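Open question from group meeting: does this chain pack into something compact, or does most of it stay loose? Before anyone orders reagents, we agreed to write out a predicted structure and look at it together. Recording both the input and the output here so the notebook holds the full record.
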Amino acid sequence: MMEAIVDLQRYMRGNKVDFTAVSLDVVIDEPFRQRIYEALRLVPWGETVTYGELARRMGAPGDARDVGQAMGRNPVPIIVPCHRVLAGRQQGRRVFRPMAAPSPRSASCRWKA
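Structure tokens returned:
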């Protein structure tokens, strides 16, 4: 545990850290989602994949949507690096699909008029 804390501190300082040796003690109620997280942990630092590519690597080429849903439910995003998974690619370029900005009514803070 102490090694993981030291690694997190190094990561926060901007150092390249490999978290694949960190064992996860997180209860994932869906075996398929657990497989997604295990496959994602194999994507090296500095590389990206799309939802579809990760699904194909797992042997489930039709499950890109499930991969995307698992990214949204990731309980430990630094250890299971969901930021390495992109929505798609177009002509070899990365495609990012940013989330819409929250409206003042849906934001967790109160807006003053």
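Observations to bring back to the group:
Helices lie at 2-12, 31-40, 51-57, 64-72.
Residues 2-12 form the longest helix (11 residues).
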